[in-house]
Specification:
alpha/beta; five-stranded mixed β-sheet; five-stranded parallel β-sheet; 8 helices; 26% helix; globular; binds S-adenosylmethionine
Length: 279
Amino acid sequence: MPNGLPRTHNAKSRTPCHPTRRSTRTSRTRRFAPPRAAGQLDPLCVNSATATTARETNDLPLVWHFGLMAEYWAWFTIEAPEVPQLLKLIGRIGQPVLDLACGSDRILTRLLIAGVDADGVDISGDMIRGAREAASAHGFLPNLVLQPMHELALSRRYGTILICDSLGLGGSRRNDLSMFRRCREHLIPGGALIVNVGMEYAYKAEWEMWTNDGQKRLPADWPDAPIARVSPDGTEFRLRIRTIEVDRLDQTFTREMSIEKRHDGRQIGAESSLLRGSL
Ligand SMILES: C[S@@+](CC[C@H](N)C(=O)[O-])C[C@H]1O[C@@H](n2cnc3c(N)ncnc32)[C@H](O)[C@@H]1O
């Protein structure tokens, strides 16, 4: 999928990260929030000097992997067909491994189960919480850190750093470059950064928005039908995603998602949010 979007193909459901959480209608368009008290996971940790600069230059990460979207992710975005190939690469390149922008679970727990010494970093406390719950269900307590990629600052150095489905979510090209520098600083000699790249042109609906005709249709209409998924406990999630802006010079896009949670035919939560990415 293009980076940032949930993988919806062939996904199966499983135990959620937040089975009891109930959301009310909110708009969850989060940029960097000021840090809250230590120990609270939900906020985004940010170095205040960098945050000020980022705010001035409008390059704060803009991501939607919180709340209901994090729940949706934990239930349904769980297939990880790339893991065998990743394990081969890790075997060649070396450990420990850092799963950067690890999300709630797709890859990290599978690496731990395979005996890999792996840590995770993510900007979303909700996704980190999901990753922690998934790992602990298998008896692991990995080191999971709430941090934006472009401010990566850990005491450990890694043989392999992975960035899966998350390249370009740094908030700006400048932040993405900073992320690459920080990755380099966190690699031991001979280590490697492994990234995958979600090509916009591989997905017809997304790619159309980059054409002259597509530009005239922005912001795109919401899709008529949502992606509707039902978890084993009968909770239904209805997700809609549309592109609202594409900057062909900057090579950036902004997408909006709207997600609804329903049980017994009643809406029990609804949220909307934005995600900005760079190619
Ligand atoms: C598309 S998901 C991919 C998750 C996981 N890597 C996977 O392959 O399943 C993107 C993840 O990147 C995280 N993320 C987005 N922007 C980030 C940033 N600037 N720094 C750190 N994590 C970020 C999100 O919170 C989310 O968990």
